[in-house]
Request: fold
Amino acid sequence: HAGATRSGGHLFCQLMNPSVGYPISFWLLPRRDDAAHYQARIDALARRFNTPVFAPHVTIGVSSMRPGAAGATPDLSGLQQSLVTLGAALAPLELPAQAIATGASRFQCVFVTLPTEPVVRLAQRLSGPVSACTDAPLIATAQAHLSLVYADLDAAARHALAASLSPPPPAIRFDRIAIVTPGVGRTDFTDPARWQAGEAVALTGVP
Reply:
């Protein structure tokens, strides 16, 4: 297997067209105490800008499946079981939080940058089980990051916001992965309020 494909742009934009199938995202989730820290930051910014609340995460990559009958959400049970098996072989990750940065899209408004290569290596480990259960190769992230707010701000406002935020803790510890779908009746990830995460799978392997 050739492994995960590296994305050259924002991952969700790769699968916005329903003709490619039902998009599926794979998230790396922080350990619960780290998640609580970032959830508080996300919640505060969502209140400030009246924007969606979402769970802190790093997107590992995206793939797609054919929808079920009448456009229903496809059966993800086989994929979930593959992740459970893989989770037993994968060790938790600790990634240095490099900086608070800004991007050009709503979904990369202001975020914490992280080293990308460890996340790409994780995507490569996922690519075999994912490809066996889906209809498209896994597209790996091009820039590992943990978003703090999804907002349509102009460049000046983004930079001002990033500069005003306190620096992140030195590292983020990740110990779970999860499958995330657009939600019932959705064929793209444009509405964060509708996203649905499957049961998180613990990474319990030995480093």
User: Anything to note?
Assistant: Residues 4 and 124 are 5 Å apart (CA to CA). The chain has a mean pLDDT of 88. DSSP finds five helices and eleven strands in the chain. The longest strand covers residues 171-181.
